[in-house]
Design a protein that fits this description.
- The complex is a heterodimer of chains A (241) and B (185).
- With 241 residues, chain A is mainly alpha-helical.
- Chain A is 56% helix and 5% strand.
- Chain A contains twelve helices and three strands.
- Chain B has two domains: 81 residues, Aspartate Aminotransferase, domain 1, CATH 3.90.1150; 90 residues, Winged helix-like DNA-binding domain superfamily/Winged helix DNA-binding domain (Arc Repressor Mutant, subunit A, Orthogonal Bundle), CATH 1.10.10.10.
- Chain B contains nine helices and six strands.
- The chains are: A mainly alpha (241), B alpha+beta (185).
Chain lengths: 241, 185
Amino acid sequence: MIELCRSVESSSANPFDVDIREKIRLLQERLPDWKFLDELLIDSEAMLELAQIVKLQDEWLKHRASSLYIDPLLIQLKVKLLAKESLSEAFIKSWHPVAQVDQISPKGLEKAFVYWRDLSPMSERFKDQFGKHGAAPGVVDYAELVSMGAFTEQQFETTLTALMDELTSKSGGEWIDYMDFIASDSYEGRVRRSYLMAFLTSEGRATLRTEPLTGKIWLKALGEKAKAPPKSVAISLGDAE
Amino acid sequence: MTEPADKALLERKVRKAFQVLVLQRGRNPGVKGWELKRHLGRDFRAILEVLSEDVASMGLEVFEVKGAEGTDDSSRFLLRFKEPPTVSEAETSGIRIDDLAVLAATIAFVNSKQGRVSRREVEHFLREKFPKWRVEYSLDRYVKRGYLDQDDRSMVHIGWRTRAEVDEATLMTMILSRAQEAPKK
C-alpha cells in the first residue's frame, strides 16, 4: 500500500487510481492483528501516505475544474508542431514581468560599510576559539633555518658531509632502506636526518628508489653526481610519538 | 483629522507602499501581506488599490499572488507590468527566444498533467524539440528563478513566479489557438 501510494506521488499518475475507501477498510481489518511497535508504525505510515493521496486528489480536482485543464495529448501535439518563435511569442503575450529595483539602497550601503569597518581581520577573527596557533603551512628553506639559528652555515656543510660519509659507508654502492638510514632516537632527529638527506638527493649525491607495491623506499650513495634533473618525491615520516 | 491631513497621510502611506514593493528585500521580489500590514497598517489593501491606480499611468499594477494558506498574511504582493511587453521589447531585454520557448512548453505540459509531472517526463517531452543541454540548463535555471518548482521527489510544479508573472490561461489558449507551423530548425 505504501509503495503504491509513493509511486503515484512520484509520477503524474491519476491519484484516483488509488481506492482510498478500500485501503482504509483493509487497514481497519488488520489493525487488531498488529502487536509490535514496528507494525503499528508501518500502519500509521500507510495512513499518512493515504492522506497524501487524498491531498493529491483534491489538487487534481481543483486543477481539472480550472480553465487550465487541457488534454495532455492535445498540448503535447500542439507544442511539437509549433515553432520555437511561436511558443516564445505566446509566452511573451501572457507575460507581466515583475518591476523592482535590484540595486543596493543608501541604507544598505551604509550597513555594508559598518559591517566591513567592524569586521576583524582574518588573523584576529578566530583567536578566541583557536588561540594564536594558526600559521598557514609554508616552506622553511635553508637560509631561514640559518637565520633562525637552527644551523650555522659551517655546521650545515659539516653535518651534510658527515651524513654523506655515513651513507657511503653503510650502502657500499648497494641500496639500503631509507627509513632505517634516517632512523634516530627522537622524532626531531629523524626529521633532521631526512631534511639533510633531501639536500643530498637534490644535489645528485644520493638517489632514491620507491617500490609502489610495498611502499618501501631505497637509498643509495652515488659515486658521481647525477646529471639527470631531480624529481620530487613526498615521503611521510609519520607523526611525532 | 482634517481633510488635508487625511490626504497627506494617505499620500505618505502610498509612497511608502511603493518603496516597500519596489525595493527587493531578500531573494524573491514582492512583499508578504503580514509585512505590508506592519508597514502600512491593517487597511493596507485600500492603500495598495490607490497605489495600483497611481502606477497604472506608468504601465504597472499591484498584483497579489495567493499563498498556500489563502490568508492576507500569506499572500505576496508585487508590482508588475500591467500589459505584456511587445516581442521586440522582450527581445531587446536580452532574453533568449529559445529559453522562453522551453519555459512556455514546460508550463503548458505541467498544466496539462494536473500541475505536477516528474522531471524525467518533462525532459523527455522537451527533448523532442530542444537539444538535451538546453533542456537541462533551462529547467535548472527556471527552478532557481522560481518559475518552476521541483520537490524532493523530483516532481516539477508551477513555481510562484509563474503564478505572479504569467497569465497561464492566456498562455494555454494562445498555444492551442496558434495555427500549426512547420518547426524551424
